[in-house]
């Protein structure tokens, strides 16, 4: 657990190497409910989440890695595949991330729907951290291949698939990370 909400925000970091346990169901309920607090123009609630745990993780590995190999991605060497399968076998929970595209809503452009979904995912990441777990947002594992998206039940005409959150207990000490000074990214417009 983190000391204060502000400390939680400034100390959160991505943790790739995770192990069991995953959040208990009551904690996962809280984590997913936090996603519902994201800013959402038009109350479209465009975010969609697919829970993948237990034996389904090995099936996801088969589907995703086979799709990546068939795509001809030269990075998927036998060593890389072995490494990814090992990593996936240790993660107790994956959440597939997507945003439903509301094509028929001229008031809320698709980029605003995408931003709302990203904000909901950030709420999941922060809630996960606040409860003492680790998470990692991966856009590997065939994220941009329709075959993987459709295997998860997300028709590519209706959804944009955004990757997977790996969630569990950090497998090692969480090192502090040096963050840049915010002033490097901020200007003030005075109207002149």
TrEMBL record:
InterPro entries linked: NAD(P)H_nitroreductase, Nitroreductase, Nitroreductase-like, YdjA-like
Cofactor info, note text: Binds 1 FMN per subunit.
Residues of the Nitroreductase domain: 10-168
EC primary class: oxidoreductase
Gene3D superfamilies per the UniProt record, alphabetical: NADH Oxidase
SUPFAM superfamilies recorded: FMN-dependent nitroreductase-like (SSF55469)
Required cofactor names: FMN
The EC number(s) this enzyme carries: 1.-.-.-
Domain of life: Bacteria
GO molecular function: oxidoreductase activity
UniProt: FMN binding residues: 12-14, 41, 137-139
Keywords assigned: Flavoprotein, FMN, NAD, NADP, Oxidoreductase
Protein family (similarity comment): Belongs to the nitroreductase family.
Protein name: Putative NAD(P)H nitroreductase
Organism: Bordetella genomosp. 7
């Amino acid at each position: 657990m983190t000391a204060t909400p502000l400390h939680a925000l400034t100390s959160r970091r991505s943790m790739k190497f995770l192990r069991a346990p995953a959040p208990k169901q009551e904690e996962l309920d809280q984590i997913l409910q936090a996603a519902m607090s994201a800013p959402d123009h038009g109350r479209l609630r465009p975010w969609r989440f697919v829970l993948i745990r237990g034996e389904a993780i090995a099936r996801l590995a088969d589907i995703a890695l086979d799709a990546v190999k068939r795509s001809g991605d030269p990075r998927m060497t036998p060593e890389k595949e072995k490494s990814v399968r090992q990593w996936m076998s240790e993660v107790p929970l994956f959440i597939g991330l997507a945003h439903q595209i509301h094509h028929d809503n001229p008031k809320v452009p698709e980029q605003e729907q995408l931003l709302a979904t990203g904000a909901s995912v950030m709420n999941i990441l922060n809630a996960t951290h606040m409860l003492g777990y680790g998470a990692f947002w991966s856009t590997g594992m065939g994220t941009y291949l329709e075959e993987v998206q459709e295997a998860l039940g997300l028709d590519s005409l209706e959804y944009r698939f955004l990757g997977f959150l790996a969630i569990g207990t950090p497998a090692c000490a969480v090192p502090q990370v040096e963050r840049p000074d915010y002033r490097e990214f901020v200007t003030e417009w005075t109207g002149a």
